[in-house]
Amino acid sequence: MDIITPQLLYHGTTSGTVDSFRSKLLDSQYWKPGKDFGEGFYTTISIAQARKWAHKGAKESWDGSKPCVLVVELKSVPPGITPLLFLSDSHGWAGFVYQHRKASVKGHDPCAAHPEIIIGPMADNDTGKIVQKGIQLNKDEDWFYEQITTSRKGRKLDSLQLGNQVVFCSEIWEPALVFVGCHIYTGGRWIYEDARSYNQTQHV
């Protein structure tokens, strides 16, 4: 399967991390277990989704950093890469998410060989609570699937409502990614800073 490049992707973070990302986008020592697709650098094709991630990260930040969205260009694909692609929510997708959400120790992955890149829907925002309940009640993957694809009001969510994520799970992708710039939320608006000319800003 071919991935057509270049492609623009977005990563929600905080302004305090920008200097680090300028020098290196993929640093596995900072990747945390217990996420949908395991440890990795999480991006999305939706800038709106990335902005939600950024606001969430800023609320949890201890240093007062502002919400920030990195703009990242995927300029090429390393040879021999086979992506794991979930076109929509499915029981296979839910099982993959459930197993990786339950992983709590860094470096211990439920996959025999974890894919270098994974593309697919996000799980629901309440996934953490659902996973804990599933563990306590010894629930299976079918139960988990129903829980994460149903809204709080009991309505079925489709894949577009869940959101999209593109996750780079290996530092082998570092040469293929370019830090293009970032949007920083300042004074009630998003301000864009281009990586090639940080002394210039434009309102978006």
Automatic annotation (TrEMBL):
Highest rank taxon of the organism: Bacteria
InterPro entries: DUF3990
Pfam family of the protein (one): DUF3990
Protein's name according to its UniProt entry: DUF3990 domain-containing protein
Organism encoding this protein: Paenibacillus oryzae
Biological classification of the source: Bacteria, Bacillati, Bacillota, Bacilli, Bacillales
